[in-house]
Write a sequence for this structure.
């Protein structure tokens, strides 16, 4: 049996397409959960990154925090929180958010901080207010880099949400954990394929987003 | 809006690290004129300029615009009343050319349509084709970007324009064009322009008044360009002006008072009799002109008379003409151009033409030198030794 056989067997089995353990349900769970985690991380990381980048202060503190957060083992944190907090969505959400904030925060900070100074100087010189400079001059130019930070955060969240199944949470990781437990390799491979597909879809979505959100004048440089 | 008067009164700037960039600088910047701040790198030009729009806060003295202290105005309102142009233009990469130019009008609450109309008008004013309106900065050359920078600064019609080395990053030919464009725009608009450069030639070309700064932000001399060239305040300024300041100073003397001799001109279809009647004292040549009156070249006077034929006849044909070289426009070009023509002429005599390029006379280096001395004594400035300067 090859991997291809496992994949075709998994996806052609009609039973895998219905019910609470069906592929659609698991995909929706996975995506929903990833979106919530990414949304919270962005809500924290973007404003702090934008403001610190704009004022050019707090870079060192940010780098330190980010390194610390990166050093935290997501899986260890997940198990610890599960033990501490019991079976709920929060122990799963927190590690994902902690995982997603550093790439968003650090790239946003760097993206804004390294914006070419002359246009910013010109904007100040024409009497533009500070926040208007941030959103109308710096952000549009920093956007490609900011989107790349969001993209790596999103991919990490989508991949890591798989391990949430370990603490009895759904998502496509369910297939991998259950498959391993049941020694059902068809299920394991099917689950892994779904995770890979989700990561690729995330990449594709961000590609589209930068096409539409980034000005042609910035993209072409 | 027409330019305002800027008074810089004993202004100083000490940076937090203790650097004194400007020290007790006083300058009266006349309205509706271009005042250039020039000096070596690090002498405080940028600091001075940026104190006027409060990008840098002064630490001593005061600056008045039309009598009003700039510290009494809200800072963003003050900046909106002044156009600001920097090196490399500093255009917004994500905005089209039209949107770049319309930035301040939009900030002031103009409608999109009105701002757009204004952008088009300004593109024409600064010599840009309006078909470029929808392009992005990356699609423009450095010189074109700088034109957009000037247009953007002029968009809300501010009375004051601050320019910090605006043309330093473009090549000399483009720079020359931009300088000429600036002078033309200024003639039409009459702004008060403070222009920073480290290039003394640029200062002399564009400035109505020139403030030479020395390191530490002290004023070395403040004078119109011709006066600066003829009477530098001290050895340091003289040094900064460079070696051939006498020659460069001639750019400020016109040729209207220069007498040119029409006797040295002969038509290409002249008869032998006509040829023999033409002569200029001290000149062994005659300037042959075509039927349209434009110069063709120099012919040896004696040979022309000997051959007894018309200048363009079989024996005195164009092959025997010396090239007449560059001619100067009488009354329009400066004494510097006239002298240059004479120096480069194979006969040592310069050819004067009218606006249509028709020869009106010839003039020798000595006669130009005499005119230079006369011009200097009339202005009361020190005479320039043309012999040495040449
Ligand atoms: N932010 C600053 N902090 C400390 N010193 C500065 C600062 N900006 C400029 N300087 C110093 O002030 C002096 C004048 O600078 P500047 O006005 O930029 O000169 P210029 O424009 O004539 O080259 C220089 O010695 C420069 O190093
Ligand atoms: Mg400077």
């Amino acid at each position: 049996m090859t991997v291809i056989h496992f994949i075709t067997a998994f996806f052609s089995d009609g039973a895998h397409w219905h019910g609470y353990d069906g592929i659609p349900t698991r995909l929706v769970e996975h995506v929903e959960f990833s979106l919530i985690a990414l949304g919270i991380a962005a809500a924290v990381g973007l404003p702090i990154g934008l403001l610190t980048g704009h004022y050019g202060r707090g870079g060192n503190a940010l780098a330190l925090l980010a390194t610390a957060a990166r050093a935290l083992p997501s899986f260890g944190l997940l198990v610890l929180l599960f033990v501490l907090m019991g079976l709920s969505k929060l122990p799963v959400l927190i590690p994902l958010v902690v995982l997603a904030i550093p790439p968003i925060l650090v790239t946003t900070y760097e993206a804004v901080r390294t914006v070419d100074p002359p246009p910013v100087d010109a904007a100040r010189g024409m009497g533009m207010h500070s926040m208007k400079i941030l959103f109308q001059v710096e952000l549009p130019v920093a956007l490609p880099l900011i989107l790349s930070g969001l993209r790596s955060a999103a991919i990490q969240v989508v991949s890591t949400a798989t391990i949430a199944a370990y603490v009895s949470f759904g998502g496509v990781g369910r297939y991998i954990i259950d498959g391993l437990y049941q020694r059902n390799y068809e299920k394991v491979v099917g689950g892994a394929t779904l995770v890979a597909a989700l990561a690729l879809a995330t990449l594709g979505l961000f590609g589209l987003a930068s096409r539409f959100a980034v000005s042609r004048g910035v993209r072409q440089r | 809006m027409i330019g305002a008067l800027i008074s810089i009164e004993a202004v100083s700037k000490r940076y937090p690290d203790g650097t004194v960039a400007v020290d007790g600088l006083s300058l009266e910047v006349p309205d509706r004129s271009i005042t250039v701040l020039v000096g070596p790198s690090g002498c405080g030009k940028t600091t001075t300029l940026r104190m006027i729009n409060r990008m840098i806060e002064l630490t001593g003295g005061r600056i008045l615009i039309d009598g009003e202290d700039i510290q009494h105005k809200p800072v963003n309102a003050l900046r909106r009343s002044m156009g600001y142009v920097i090196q490399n233009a500093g255009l917004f990469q994500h905005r089209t050319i039209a949107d770049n130019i319309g930035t301040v009008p939009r900030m002031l609450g103009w409608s999109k349509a009105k701002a757009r109309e204004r952008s088009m008008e300004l593109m024409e004013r600064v010599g840009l084709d309006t078909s470029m309106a929808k392009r992005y900065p990356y699609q423009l050359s450095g010189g074109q970007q700088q034109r957009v920078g000037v247009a953007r600064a002029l968009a809300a019609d501010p009375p004051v324009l601050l320019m910090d080395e605006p043309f330093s990053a473009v090549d000399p030919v483009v720079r020359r064009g931009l300088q000429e464009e600036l002078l033309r725009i200024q003639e039409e608009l009459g702004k008060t322009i403070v222009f920073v450069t480290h290039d003394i030639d640029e200062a002399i070309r564009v400035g109505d008044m020139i403030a030479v700064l020395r390191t530490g932000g002290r004023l070395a001399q403040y004078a119109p360009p011709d006066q600066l060239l003829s009477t530098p305040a001290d050895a340091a300024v003289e040094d900064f002006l460079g070696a051939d300041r006498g020659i460069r100073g001639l750019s400020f003397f016109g040729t209207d008072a220069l007498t040119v001799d029409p006797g040295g001109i002969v038509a290409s279809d002249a008869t032998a009799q006509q040829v023999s009647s033409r002569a200029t004292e001290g000149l062994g040549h005659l300037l042959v002109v075509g039927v349209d009156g434009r110069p063709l070249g120099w012919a040896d006077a004696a040979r022309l008379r000997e051959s007894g034929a018309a200048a363009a006849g079989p024996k005195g044909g164009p092959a025997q003409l010396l090239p007449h070289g560059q001619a100067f426009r009488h009354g329009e070009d400066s004494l510097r151009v006239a002298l240059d023509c004479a120096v480069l002429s194979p006969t040592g005599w310069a050819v004067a033409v009218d606006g249509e390029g028709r020869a009106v006379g010839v003039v020798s280096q000595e006669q130009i030198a005499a005119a230079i001395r006369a011009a200097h004594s009339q202005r009361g400035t020190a005479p320039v030794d043309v012999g040495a300067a040449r």
Summary: The domain at 3-13+23-116+124-215 of chain A is CATH 1.10.3720.10 (MetI-like fold). Chain A touches chain B through 24 residues (CB under 8 Å). Chain A has one domain: 3-13+23-116+124-215.
